[in-house]
């Protein structure tokens, strides 16, 4: 089999996106906020539309800023509904993101003749078009696929964010009150994480779509957590799973001639179900922990 | 009976806390001396944990103020240590015992920086003090309840503070561990630290605390053990809970300790 440059680019980009989503997803899962990630990925739609309308193109910085603001807004509304209006967390998530998403759809329809955007593009994405969507410089020189650059930049920023705030993210995920007591800006850290999720969603939606971003945020961390109880192994395993999902998803899609993003998530789901099934039969097999499970002496 | 002290380590003035309009703490007004082992006693729902949380600004305060070391909380955070209730976190979190204890040092490290050798040594020393040194690398999901509690106490010790606030640190802890931890707390107070403990077992409270705060929505008593442990005040604190009261008098009789003689 000869080297297929397009296949390599698609798998490479998909891996980058899965890793970015997985890194953030680990902390979202540990904070029991996986569904907030889901809400954010939908709630950014009005921000994307407004940014699109202001800048006139989907490449603009305005799109990312608009989405970021809406992501934070969604988080704030969810927290407000939960804490002040005493609405249950799942209900406040359901209300918030459907409302914002609906506003996004209304905006798309109202501005339909002005913006080149439709909800299918936002929801499903199409990574297979990636090799023909090139970044052309002003001098007319082709630099390669635009979305790959976006994905590289996104991964760099996500990795830097997690590297710099690793200690704070871990502490506030485990025990938020203790973080507040020792003077960590727990609220700001939480909002920063939500902004990174919003940014990652926007950066990835053209390739895999908003719905599938959710799967990449939730499924690899949840699968990895079945296998390890150590944070560093959890992060490594999540990244590994992300790459595996990208490769397997691409070739399965190639085989049956179907959607690559859809197949990636299907592969992830199957791996998760397989792991869950295996763990329910053999609950004690684990790797990545430094100690073996044995009866404690006291 | 409320006994106030000069130059207190902690001063609470007219503190009122309410959840959803209904107050859970009414006009609490007290001051506490330094270097004492202080117990907060009261029935369930008396507002014991709320008092600790209000001191740490973890719940919004409706009225009154708290002063620690005669300063605002934000100026003295590094000198205060906190042990939350064990159930307040998910112990299935992927972290080792050492990871959790090191968290006690994070307040002093500052943003963006990683803990190093010095912090690791502090954490190891603290684990040794609570007798958990052989569990350093164990994942916290594999610990028993009493061990989890000791990890939390070690984390508080790693903060190297002057004032320790502990919310039910003896819930689900066996007698041997309880005695060992009380000894450790007594050593700390002997070294000049102040330790405030929310406690529910009147029996062991009589044995260990120097100063007792009795709480039942209102402040019933605050003072040295010998002065505030009277049948009248215990009755006021625990209200009409007769079963419990008989138990209390039993304990007092057993211990051959009759506060009414005082």
Keywords summarizing the entry:
heterodimer, A: 298 residues, mainly alpha, globular, B: 262 residues, Rossmann fold, six-stranded mixed beta sheet, 9 strands, cell membrane (chain A), membrane (chain A), ABC_TroCD (chain A)
Can you describe what's shown?
The complex is a heterodimer of chains A (298) and B (262). Chain A has 298 residues and is mostly helical. Chain A has a domain at 15-214. Helix content of chain A is 74%, strand content 2%. A two-stranded antiparallel sheet of chain A has the order 1-2. Chain B is built from ten helices and nine strands. In chain B, a hairpin with a 2-residue loop joins strand 1 and strand 2. The two termini of chain B are 14 Å apart. In chain B, helix 9 packs antiparallel against helix 10 (242-254). Chain B is an alpha/beta fold and 262 residues long. The mean pLDDT of chain B is 86. Chains A and B meet through helix 8, helix 9 and helix 11 of A and helix 3 of B.
Layout of secondary structure:
The complex is a heterodimer of chains A (298) and B (262).
Chain A: H1 5-30, H2 34-43, H3 45-55, H4 61-83, H5 89-110, H6 119-124, E1 134-136, E2 142-145, H7 146-164, H8 166-174, H9 176-181, H10 186-227, H11 231-256, H12 260-281
Antiparallel strand pairs in A: 1-2
Chain B: E1 10-19, E2 22-32, E3 37-41, H1 48-55, E4 63-68, E5 80-83, H2 97-102, H3 106-109, H4 117-129, H5 145-157, E6 163-167, H6 175-190, E7 194-198, H7 202-208, E8 211-216, E9 218-224, H8 225-228, H9 231-238, H10 242-254
Parallel strand pairs in B: 3-7, 3-8, 5-6, 6-7
Antiparallel strand pairs in B: 1-2, 1-4, 8-9
Protein name (chain A): Manganese/zinc/iron transport system permease protein
Subcellular location (chain A): Cell membrane
Organism (chain A): Algoriphagus chordae
